[in-house]
Known about the structure:
Number of domains: 3
Order of helices and strands: HHHHHHEEEEEEHEEH
Structural class: alpha+beta
Number of helices: 8
Largest sheet: 5 strands, antiparallel
Radius of gyration: 33 Å
Helix content: 40-55%
Number of strands: 8
Amino acid sequence: MENIRIYFEEQFKVLSENSGAIVWNILCIVLIVLVGKLVLSFISKITSFNMEKAEEKPEMQKKRIKTLMTLLRSVARYAVYFVCIMLILSLLGFGPTIQNLLVTAGIGSVALGFGAQSLVKDVVTGLFLMFENQFSVGDYVKIGDVEGTVSATAMRVTYLKTALGQQIIIPNGKIETVINYSRADSLAKVLIPIGYDCDLKKAMDVCLKAAEKCAKEHAEIVLEAPKVQGITAFEDSSITISVICKVQSCKHWEMERALRLAIKEGLDENNIDIPFNQLDVKIKDNSN
């Protein structure tokens, strides 16, 4: 017990002698954290202001500005966090250790030593994606097997929002193939199965008239008049006719739904059936 008492007395004496330095370091750490938060808050306000002003600009320019602003936020966040952590470690007495580590091993070796190869790949790929302008915030894209609207871009990851409202986070290093539906006009394409015993020329004429009527009703998104491509496939129980219509970017889903409804109504009016599988069930009468 005497040894424990002596130990605590020595520790209390050390704390008393260095209380000024300890309090000063605590105040400095609090100040560093507050300054870091203020810097991030200032950057957030600046980027938000620029994104609001971008609403007045053309669509492509607006998306580009939003993409750059979200990227700036991400870069600033990493930079501020890194500087704050380095300053706090220096106040805690780890400054010489960090400097020696960086000098002897090099920054790249330190990163690799901590297993950050994938992190470096994500950051480098993200920068190339931004410089090459492959997609912008607000674009509807397909990355791999995932489709959605780009909601934000960062140094390391890209955020997609699906039609169901799900947020998908994709590391930039894993992005290999990108399909951007927002950069060009879209093509609505509908395949209509017709029976072998039907008058195909009449069926194609009915499909074309129905498609033209539908295009007039959706004139605000249609860029070119619809066309019947003709017979595109012979199936087991039907012949497939293809109808196409060029529309504004990302409007092909809307137009395809409208075309299917219009063509089905047109075929029904002309007594042209769409073949479908039927199952005949015979019930055996065992009453006798």
